[in-house]
Structures are given as C-alpha cells and as structure tokens.
Design brief:
The chain is of the alpha/beta class. 23% of the residues lie in helices and 33% in strands.
Amino acid sequence: MLYDHFEKEQLLFNMNFKEAVGAKAAYRGELVVIEGEVGDAQGRRKPPHGVLKQGVSLAAGDKLLFLSGFMDKLDLLEPLLAKYEAFFTAETSVILFVVNIGKNVVVDYKGTKVELIPLVEGMVWNELADLIGYEKEDFKGQTASEKVVTLVDGLATRKVKAPVVSLADALALVVDVKRELRGAI
C-alpha cells in the first residue's frame, strides 16, 4: 500500500486513518511537504516545516488517484508537487484549497491537473462535498475509507469551470489575506 511507503518515509503526519477499501487505499490526515531535520541517531525527524493540512487522498497500487488538502500559503505548492509528482498520473485529480490565492485556477503540472481554490474559512472535507452537493446522507452507513471513495467518485463527474494557467501564472495570484478563525474566546 502506498501509504505504508509514505509512513515508512515519515511523510504521514497527524494521521486520522489509512485503510484499504478493495484494491484502493484511503488516507485522511496531514502529508509532509517540507520535512523537519533528523532529530536523533535512529533517523526520526523533528516536526515538519510544511504540511498539507486536512489531507484527503485515495491511492491504487503505487499511484495517487486523488489528493486534496489545505495550504495556508501558495508557496507550499511547488514543494508539494515536487515531493509527490512521482505518484501522479494523468488521471490523478488534485484539488488544493489555499488561503492566499486570489481566484480559482487549474494548473497543468506535467500532465496532472491541479485545481487551486481560495479558502479563507471552512474545512476541506466539507468544501469537497459542497463542490458536488453531497450531504451527510450520501455517506450514511459507510466506513471512513468508503466515504473517501464515494467522495472521489462524485468529484470525478464534476465539470471544473476555472481557467487553465501555468504554474508561474498561478504563483503570481498570491493575495494578502489571513485565514479567519472562529470559536470560543
């Protein structure tokens, strides 16, 4: 399973779950983008310097079928793509929510379509479900990994209405905003 490889390489962080579902495997949790320094003689690392937060992904064999998550800053995009591009195919779907991007765009990154969506408040799972109009009832009675498969299957039928731009043009869309946090005071 691809996620076992990622775990061995210490790329899974704050894992919610990783489990097989048929010939596929689902993962929810953070993915390391910029690794921390080696902290001891056993090779364990200090906390990462950059992560893809609220990650949702689906793999088959040694390839990612779907990858989504949240980034505070667009400057994590290039390191993320560089670290995980070996696991992408032309069929891989990547949807990333970014605080400081000015508008929705799609980047064609070496044959893989990477959709970038502004997100100042909200949760990745809820936003993904909203993109296709899914409610809690659509996932009722399913295991955690089955829910990921259901979501990814639904997203595969969605028509993306964002312009395709180069990676350089996408990186130029940075705006000065901060994530809105709410909760107890």
